[in-house]
């Protein structure tokens, strides 16, 4: 069995993103109990026995608001509890990168980290965004692989898809994932950030076509691109089939909703 566990180091954050499911700076000012975390997963590994893998993902709030020494301790105690164990982390990277954080990313995190960028709803000011970009550039210079997460908001779909993909390419990150919003946390207070389903789907379909037109699959690794090149391609083929049938007057004209 392959297991995935999120290790929430804290409920709070140093940002107050309008879409955040953890309520941002208003999240509870509590931190994890590493003794309880270690004890639980050691007992869990004994319970499930051999032949299993585990991926631990440090999460938050902002996970690096917790002491890095706590994260190192959890890593040291849990890295051999399953037949294969890996660790990851998703961070907003909007803070000063210290040597111990860089060492943790290059060591226990195996030179990989996830981070997020979103238009209009994430950074409170240009200084925060500049700090984020500087940290991204610093980690890339250290050989770290960065996976960029972008939430699909109304502001996101207002961007021409190919221009967004060019921006990601020029940023230099190696991976991209697009995430749908969830209606909880801060997002419940800002319904205006949610795009209509039809508008969102049309934007995805446009992205799919522009990926083909500009050969954008080669720009960076992207799970979403690969899914879109198959599932959206199939959707387009079905639409074209219905259009052809309708044009031949075999069936009344019909329109497929995305």
Briefly characterize the structure:
The protein is α/β, with parallel strands linked by helices and 258 residues long. It has helices spanning 34-48, 68-78, 99-106, 126-141, 154-157, 161-171, 197-214, 223-247; strands spanning 2-8, 53-59, 84-91, 112-116, 145-152, 175-180, 221-222.
Taking the sheet with the most strands, its summary is: 7 strands, parallel
Helical amount among residues, as a percent range? Answer: 40-55%
For the CA atoms, what is the radius of gyration?
21 Å
Estimated structural class: alpha/beta
Low-confidence stretches: 249-258
Query: How many H/I helices?
Result: 8
Structural description of this entry:
With 258 residues, this protein is an alpha/beta fold. 42% of the residues lie in helices and 17% in strands. The protein has eight helices and seven strands; from the N terminus they run βαβαβαβαβααβαβα. The chain has helices at 34-48, 68-78, 99-106, 126-141, 154-157, 161-171, 197-214, 223-247, and strands at 2-8, 53-59, 84-91, 112-116, 145-152, 175-180, 221-222. It has a seven-stranded parallel sheet with strand order 1-2-3-4-5-6-7. Helix 7 (197-214) crosses helix 8 (223-247). The longest helix has 25 residues, at 223-247. Mean pLDDT is 87; it is low at 249-258.
């Amino acid at each position: 069995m392959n297991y995935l566990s999120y290790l929430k180091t804290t409920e709070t954050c140093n940002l107050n993103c309008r879409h955040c499911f953890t309520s941002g700076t208003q999240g509870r000012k509590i931190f994890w109990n590493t003794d309880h975390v270690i004890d639980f997963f050691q007992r869990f590994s004994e319970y499930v026995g051999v032949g299993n893998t585990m991926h631990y993902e440090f999460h938050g709030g902002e996970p690096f608001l917790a002491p890095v020494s706590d994260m190192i301790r959890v890593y040291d105690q849990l890295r051999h509890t399953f037949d294969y164990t890996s660790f990851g982390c998703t961070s907003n990277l909007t803070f000063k990168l210290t040597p111990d954080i860089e060492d943790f990313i290059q060591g226990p995190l195996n030179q990989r980290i996830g981070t997020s960028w979103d238009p209009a709803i994430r950074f409170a000011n240009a200084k925060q965004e500049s700090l984020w970009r500087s940290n991204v550039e610093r980690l890339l210079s250290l050989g770290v692989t960065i996976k960029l997460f972008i939430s699909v908001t109304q502001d996101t779909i207002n961007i021409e898809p190919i221009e967004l993909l060019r921006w990601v390419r020029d940023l230099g990150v190696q991976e991209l994932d697009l995430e749908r919003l969830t209606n909880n946390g801060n997002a419940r207070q800002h319904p205006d950030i949610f795009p209509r389903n039809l508008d969102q789907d049309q934007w995805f379909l446009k992205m799919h076509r522009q990926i083909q037109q500009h050969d954008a699959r080669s720009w960076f690794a992207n799970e979403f691109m690969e899914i879109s090149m198959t599932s959206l391609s199939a959707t387009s083929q079905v639409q074209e089939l219905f259009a052809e049938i309708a044009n031949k007057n075999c069936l009344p004209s019909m329109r497929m909703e995305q």
